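Hi again,

Forgot to attach this to my earlier email, sorry! This is the prediction with flavin-adenine dinucleotide bound. I've pasted everything inline since the attachment limit keeps bouncing my files.
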Amino acid sequence: MTEPASVQDTAATPVPRRHRVVIIGSGFGGLFAAQHLEKADVDVTLIARTGHHLFQPLLYQVATGILSVGEIAPPTRLILRDQENASVVLGDVNKIDVTDKRVHATAGHIAFDLEYDSLIVAAGANQSYFGNDHFERWAPGMKTVDDALELRSRILGCFEQAEVIDDEEERRRLLTFIIVGAGPTGVEMAGQVAELAQHTLKDSFRRIDPASARVILLDAAPAVLPPFGNKLGNAARARLEKMGVEIQLNAMVTDVDYHGIEVKDPDGSVRRIDASCKIWSAGVQASPLGKMLAEQTDAEIDRAGRVLVNKDLSLPGHSEIFVVGDMMSLDNLPGVAQVAIQGGKYAAKQIINEVEKGKSPAQRPPFKYFDKGSMATVSRYSAVVKMGRIEISGFIAWVMWLIVHLAYLIGFKNRVTTMFSWGMHMGGDHRSQLTSTKQWVYARQAIERVAADEAAAVRTAEEARRNGTSAESDASADTAGRNTESVR
Ligand SMILES: Cc1cc2nc3c(=O)[nH]c(=O)nc-3n(C[C@H](O)[C@H](O)[C@H](O)COP(=O)(O)OP(=O)(O)OC[C@H]3O[C@@H](n4cnc5c(N)ncnc54)[C@H](O)[C@@H]3O)c2cc1C
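Structure tokens for the complex follow:
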């Protein structure tokens, strides 16, 4: 590994240099912050571990074959191509040094760092298994493009295997789909898996009837869509039940394995449900970068790992660091796209005020969130919408959902192709993205093993360098050998 370099220190750096804004994350918070700084007299570096801006609310449509990855995950580099003051860097941030004002990252085996004057941290959240991380192997969550492709292949793979198996019990297990978590993502997934089984795949198998698949939506809470209130939650529940989805509430998952799940009911009894395909959408945990920031400052984190920020979204004692979106905790604001978008724009605006208008951080107005409402689809032609006291369900809500999601998709071309894909889906439940591969199911696990080995090699090499020995090449060579082994 080479000495960490600063990717900002190029010959092209203007002298005297401009105010440097580093943004971590290309999700809603990070991207909107960068775009809001377009005309500002600053240099923006946006770093993210993924090269795309992911529209997470439509991930379930990739997982169930309606939309392609490209439609919901355009490359960030191309989105910001015409923004001259912005550069995009692909890298995994592993350390933020608030004293040195430096962000340390790696891109593969290359380590580099970025200096900042202002930092906007928008690294989002990961799936949470509430301390049972071993569930993940059998019940993947849905936070990334990889998750959606893996789930799509797992879902379709179950139908394929059910077609060729003779054992009736195993066939039933393969045709049982469990979605854990009855929030918006769980409801959307349950509705789409049911539609896939009953409509899209109809008449396409010879030995099984895909419509006989059992789709179970399960939650430890007593309600469907709790944040939407009773009326809309019940409407969503009724619609799902009409589609044949089994709803099991007050059901706590106590174990997940290859064969199925173990559930504890309110009376304390424990039962098993055999199912090959399990999907986890039950909770989130903020990026570990939040904890790292809290350890270096007077900030605290909550149980979900979110950073308790000041009213101006900054960290105590560090007005130059903003934390926005799913990583921040302020006034019980929910982890939704609008909180991240508005937070990102707000942080950008404060930086502009201070760099260009000479204002001081003490003059910042508190962040005010404008709640534009929440919505979730249940099935084709059916959604729920809550805007203040207005609650709508059914077709009109679905049309509203459609318009809002189209409006927030990035890029004109993506809107057009998405509209076309939706048209095909509405017209005849045609889904054009039903490709599945074994690699999407298994490769991630292999890659994670390789990455862990590689990270260990980098650590060993760094240690050797610090100690003045030359173990670096030996360690890398050794790990490279082991990597090859593990991939095989
Ligand atoms: C399946 C699903 C459905 C959803 N549906 C809705 C919905 O219908 N409506 C709604 O309002 N909200 C919805 N949400 C929530 C919404 O998507 C999030 O609130 C929003 O994406 C948060 O934005 P963010 O910028 O904080 O984080 P994210 O959008 O998650 O972006 C995080 C970014 O940080 C990067 N990153 C993370 N760690 C590192 C690191 N160490 N180094 C470098 N980069 C890093 C990631 O690559 C990513 O680019 C949904 C979420 C999911 C998962």
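The chain has two domains: 16-49+91-127+285-363, 133-282+374-436. The longest strand covers residues 42-48.

That should be everything now.

G.
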